[in-house]
Amino acid sequence: MDANAEQLLAHLPYLRRYARALTGDGEAGDALVGRAVEAALAAPGDAGLGGNSRLPLYALLNRLFDESGRTFQIEEVGHPIKAALSLLPETQRRLYLLVNLEALPVAEAGSVLELSREEARTRMTEAQEAVREALIASIMIVEDDAIIAYDLAETVRGMGHKVCGTAATMDAALSTAKACRPTLALMDLRLAHGDSGITTAQMLRRTSELPIIFVTAFADELQRRGLEHLGPIIRKPFTREEIERAITQAVFAPSAEARIPALAALAQRKERDGMQSAR
After folding, report:
1. Domain spanning 138-256 has what CATH number?
2. What global pTM score does this model have?
């Protein structure tokens, strides 16, 4: 193996990582890397594609991806950061990936994308602010005890998320959810006027996939009725750490329903890779 090929081999894990993020698909990313390696090996020695720097190779991946006519397609199941990145203009998305995924200085990432230093800094700041804003959850609190509702709200705000509304009854919760479209709800099981948090959760689920975390002293009621699937349970009295952990898991993890096809696909790919290795 010549020196050029050895250097390309050393760069391969980084190229695969970036290509998969660039395309939004593992197989498409690997295919893109394959084309880039072929082009790099066929390039003249002075092209700089096999040198110590990966910058020309990142630029090559971008060029080949653009020439393919494909566009970034977010997978059905993905981390919220990936979803947030999908909302960015394409140049900002690639700049964010080069800086935060590939650990390039902003100036170097900008050079890959043919941006001036100043333009790269400006676009990177805009991308960071947009991602940060997209990752802020809008949380509805359904709790009839004013002190507990206040404590939950302070915990939510302390994490950097927003409280979009509070409600003490089922009707108030339904109207609040319709008005502010929360990304998550913290809900007691026993509400004011004899209303049920279970019924409220079931009503909300009829019109949306709103994740719900039950914060209650009556956790056995959910378990007794076989309704644990409605959401995770935090028992009262709770700690702020428990609330923070549950919110983080709900905001940053796919739902249980969404994990199933993802795990199936992973198992199929592992089995396929094993069969190919056996050959």
Report:
1. 3.40.50.2300
2. 0.67
